[in-house]
Amino acid sequence: MSSLxxxxxxxxxxxxxxxxxxxxxxxxxxxxxxxxxxxxxSVAPVSAVDxxxxxxxxxxxxxxxxxxxxxxxKDSYKSMLEAHAKxxxxxxxxxxxxxxxxxxxxxxxxxxxLGEKRAEAVVKVLELLGVPSSQLEAVSFGKEKPKALGxxxxxxxxxxxxxxxxx
Length: 167
What we know:
There is one protein chain. The chain is an alpha+beta fold. It has helices at residues 2-20, 38-42, 78-90, 108-128, 153-159, and strands at residues 63-65, 96-101, 136-142, 161-166. This is Peptidoglycan-associated lipoprotein. One of its GO terms (cellular component) is cell outer membrane.
């Protein structure tokens, strides 16, 4: 009886090992000594992670900050906006909603207008970098969506911004 069980176990092990075999020869030469011939050129690199989700990518930065009462995009944001422009050009199915924001000072009407100018300034830079306008939209939140809730210069500086929201 025990020899029957041993024979069954040995047979099942052989069957399991045979099932794991792929039958594909991985190193068939393909015209070269090491197998890295023409087949290596036909394999495209696969990027499983969208660069938008990479925290180390320049695309992770999505806010442009402005000086008080200004809607001029600073030169320090040039490389970040160039990275976003390249991404958008390479991904024509992606859209960005540029959200203009202001600090709490000023009237609601004034802040809505200033937020719109900030959003449009960022949109204009992206368009100048080659992004089609069909991928861009500007909207103003004025002072309605503050990033920082304080009532001091540090909080106001955080709230004077335009955010890039991918859709």
